[in-house]
Structure formats: C-alpha cells, structure tokens
Amino acid sequence: MPQYNPPLRDMQFVLHELLDIGSVLKELPPHADTDADTINAVLEEGGKFAAEVLFPLNLSGDAEGCTLDKTTHEVTPPKGFKQAYAQYVEGGWPALSCDPEYGGQGLPHTVNQCFYEMLNSANQAWTMYPGLSHGAYEALHAHGTPEQKALYLPKLVSGEWTGTMCLTEPHCGTDLGMLRTKAEPQADGSYRITGQKIFISAGEHDMVPNIVHLVLARLPDAPAGSKGISLFIVPKFLVNADGSVGARNGIHCGALEHKMGIHANATCQMILDGAVGTLVGEPNKGLQAMFVMMNAARLGVGNQSLGLTEVAYQNAVAYAKDRLQMRALSGPKATDKPADPIIVHPDVRKMLLTARAFAEGGRALACYTALQLDIELNHPDEDARRAAADETALLTPIIKAFLTDNGWLATSHCMQVFGGHGFIHEWGMEQYVRDARINMIYEGTNTIQSLDLLGRKVLGDNGKKLKAFGRKIAEFVEEEGVREDMQEFINPLADLGDKVTKLTMEIGMKAMANPDEVGSAAVDYLRVVGHLTFAYFFARMARLALDKQGSGDPFYTAKLHTARFYFAKLLPETATLIRTARAGVAPLMAMDEALF
C-alpha cells in the first residue's frame, strides 16, 4: 500500500541550481569531466533500483525480520534481500564513488549521497548492509597498508564482500576508552583477538561469501583509556594471499538483538574467540583510524533520516488528498463529495509542510556537505582543501543530530496524518517512525553530537570554523539584503546569525567557570545552529525560486511556499531554544540525586 517516487526534480534543483555542482567539479581534477547529464542519468537509474527493487521489500522485510541458526551461527535476512543485493552488485552500484585504482567508478561523493538517500527512503534496513561497507572502505583506504588495500579494497568496492564496524561492548557504548576486547600478538605478525561486541549492524548474513569486520581492541601493553585502542581487520573467513576465501575465523554471531525497528537488518552480538586479525595503522592509534569510518557513518545516519522523512511525506500527502473527513471550517471545498479531503485542514497542512521543509532543507544541507567532502579530497589547492575539511567537520554533527531529530518529528507527524490507519502496519507509516528512532541513538547519540559541535568544533577552536561558515551567510545577506522581495528571508537569517554569535560567546564565558554549562546548553545549541544552516539554504533556494517565478514551472512556486512556511512556522523555534540554552546548568544540577 505505501508508495515511493524518487525526488529527482528536487535533487537536480539542489545539485545544479543551488550548488552549481558542475562549476565546482570542474576545479577538481578527478571529477572535471563529470557533467550534469551524467549525474542525472546515474540518479535516474539509481532511483529506479530503489523504487522498483528495494521498496517492495521494505514492508515484508520488516514483518519477517532476520533468522539466526544457533547451531551454525548463520543469519538469514528476509526473503528477497539476497537477490536484491545481487542486483545491486550487478549494476555496479557499490563502486559508484570509490577509487578507480581499486575498481571504483570515481564519481563524486555528492552523487553517492543522493543515491543513498533514495536507497534509505526505499528500505533503510536493507541499505545498512552495503552502507557500512562504504565506511570500512574509507577507513582502509585512508589507513590500510598497501597489502591490506590490495587484498580487501577491490572486494569491498565491487560489493563481493561487505564490511562492518565493531566498537560497542556490553558495558560501554560511546565511552570506548572502557573497552575490554584483547589482541594478543602472534609470531607471524597477526593477532589473536578475544572479546564480545554488541549492536553490530549487518554483523552476520548470507548475502556475500565474506564479511570484513573492523574491530577495536587493546594490545597487552596498551595505555589505559582511549589512547590504548588499536584497530584490526578481522574477516569472517580468513583470506588467502591470492584473495580467495580460506578457513572460518573465530568470530561469529552469538545472538540477534530484538529491536524496536530496522527488523530486517541483522543487529548482532558478535563473539570473538581467538579470531585472527591484522593491525590497521599504528598500535594504540586505532581510534583515529576508526574515526574515518565513524564520520562516514554519522553522515550516513543523517541521510537515513532524510530518506525516511521524504518517503513518509510522500505517503502522507497522497493519503491527505484522498481521505475524506469533515468539512473545512471556512466552508465545503469538495461540494460533490460527502466530506472534504483532510488536506484542506490547516493543521494537516502544517504537519505535511513540516515534513516537506525538513526533507528539502535536509537535502540541501546534506548535498552541500557532501560537495565540501569532494572538495576536501580532490581540490588542488591546499587552502581550499583545508577550508572544506573544516566545514565538513563543523556540519557533520549537525547533519547527524538535526536531521535525525527532524526525521523523528516528521515521520511522527506523517503517521498522525493517517489517523488510526497510521498505527496499522500495512500502511507502512508506523514502520517509518520505529525505524527513525534508532537514528537518534546510534553512531553517537545526538547529545554526543551536540557536545562535539559545541565543545570541540566551536569552542575548541575559539569559533574559527563557525565564523568561517558565518562569513558565507554574512556575504549572502549583504548581497541580497537590497532586494525588497528577499526581506522576509534575509532579515530573520541575519537576526539569527547575530543571536548565534552572542549565544556562543555567552556559553563560552560561562563554560570557563563551569564546564557543565556546555553540557546543559549543547543540545539546544545544536538545534539553533541547525536552524541557522536551514535558514541559509532556504533563503538561497527562495532567491532562486523568486527569480524563476515567471517560468510557469510550479516547482518554483512550491519551493517558495515551502521556504515561507519554514521561516514563518519552524524557524521561530529558535527563540525558545536560545532561552532554554541561556537558562544554564543550575536548574538541571541543583536537585540532590537522592530526590530523583
């Protein structure tokens, strides 16, 4: 009963009109020949794969879930998943943005970002199987030895093998300094790794002949805490020198987690019993290497909620146009019917427009950040690479936390549009709500992202990264502030920019006296800065739409209405957030623990 249509028109608008991706790519030697026609053709075919192959498996996969054979420790995903993965590999999709040296197609990360948004809309649980492979690829591409790269990267790039990240243990989640998994050096230069990991997404399945686990563990003489963590490659099956699969390694799935959502993805408890591993990077420097994969995963999780926001919105709109309920307060609209479609009711429209604005704002921010990543990796000028790296670092926690918070709100709103039917599985909406909830938790909870933004990315460098992004906003405000038709967008954007500057300075001063002030303000602060980024992109999109009003294309009319809704109904949330951030830590910490 659910439906999904890839939002190709809006993706094209963001890539070609908002970001002018063609001009940017011409400055990046590996992508200088990638033109708009190529990008559009790739995304059109990617949309077909998402809508026609993956989407039909989403509802049934959620109902069926994964099955663990406790004797063999093998996990079977839902019906159709293995066949869909084979089509994914056959189509060359795993290699889309990977290095041609290892069999990749070498397309920009920005193209892969849009492709994965569509995959997440179609089937988030399925998409997590190949999605984590990208993170494993990035980590090994950045920190692997030439031998490790030659052995593993072609298999990950082709999709012949998949990858995972094994961090969390039963007694520790984000605080990886507490992990206990041990790595014992062997005479041949390998390591024997023993321990237990939990919450390992796609940790075991039968869709590929081998799974490459990236595992954090401690060497015998490792320093305490996070400075004593090393990273290891631990394949499900040992790999022979010629790249063929060898004997079964000592790592297996001990149990599947029983979860609220993403039922079709195998979330595993992984047991390592003397598993053979090889060191990635330097001893005790594993966290730095794993951060490559973690940052990729954080951008990916934001993209998961962006995908869910889009598909939930599409289904809620279709339902609201069809469902008859009551008459409009201003008088009947569908006079030939016994009641009006619920889309005539103001609060239904508010819920729909909220989801639409979160999807369109999120798409703009996510694509912009992916393009900065392409610049960081490929621009010939070192200063340009450094500036793009700073901006990507600043925006990564915002994408992870702001987009997933918004996804939770949007899917919940869209389920509400369905009324009682939204609570019923066959309509698909309650699954989107359940699936969206995990995105706020894993890959670093949204509170952790908020602390990262405020404490590390903003106060940690005295606001350097934030000021650089703020200059882009200020330049746009100065350029467009003279236009009368832009005042409704420019004035609130400029006002919020000033307030963010003042709020940042105020929190920074208070934190010097009491570091807990950062913890009390961080979540509200991230959401304020998230709105600042959305306001900037919606103002830019509104300018483009205003300039195209005479084209007769209803796309621009809708874009302008969405921007106006965002500024009128969603951006004002920042007033409350700034006030609660300024309330400080006292109301949170004053009460004695015994009184809780």
Task: List the secondary-structure elements in sequence, H or E.
Answer: HHHHEEHHHEEEEEEEEEHHHHHHHHHHH
CATH topology grouping of the domain at 8-154: Butyryl-Coa Dehydrogenase, subunit A, domain 1
Number of helices: 18
Distance between the termini: 46 Å
What oligomeric state best describes the polypeptide chains here? single chain
Task: Tell me what the structure shows.
It is a single chain. The chain has 596 residues and is of the alpha+beta class. It is 57% helix and 11% strand. It has helices at 8-18, 21-26, 36-54, 58-64, 81-90, 109-143, 146-158, 286-322, 346-378, 382-417, 429-439, 446-458, 464-480, 487-513, 516-547, 554-570, 573-582, 586-589; strands at residues 67-69, 74-76, 162-166, 182-185, 191-201, 211-217, 230-235, 237-239, 245-248, 251-256, 267-280. A hairpin with a 4-residue loop joins β1 (67-69) and β2. α14 runs parallel beside α17 (573-582). It is globular, with a radius of gyration of 24 Å. The model has no long low-confidence stretch (mean pLDDT 97).
Topology:
Elements: H1 8-18, H2 21-26, H3 36-54, H4 58-64, E1 67-69, E2 74-76, H5 81-90, H6 109-143, H7 146-158, E3 162-166, E4 182-185, E5 191-201, E6 211-217, E7 230-235, E8 237-239, E9 245-248, E10 251-256, E11 267-280, H8 286-322, H9 346-378, H10 382-417, H11 429-439, H12 446-458, H13 464-480, H14 487-513, H15 516-547, H16 554-570, H17 573-582, H18 586-589
Parallel strand pairs: 3-6
Antiparallel strand pairs: 1-2, 4-5, 5-11, 6-7, 7-11, 8-9, 10-11
Family: Belongs to the acyl-CoA dehydrogenase family.
Function: Involved in the assimilation of dimethylsulphoniopropionate (DMSP), an important compound in the fixation of carbon in marine phytoplankton, by mediating the conversion of 3-(methylthio)propanoyl-CoA (MMPA-CoA) to 3-(methylthio)acryloyl-CoA (MTA-CoA).
Domain Acyl-CoA oxidase/dehydrogenase middle: 165-273
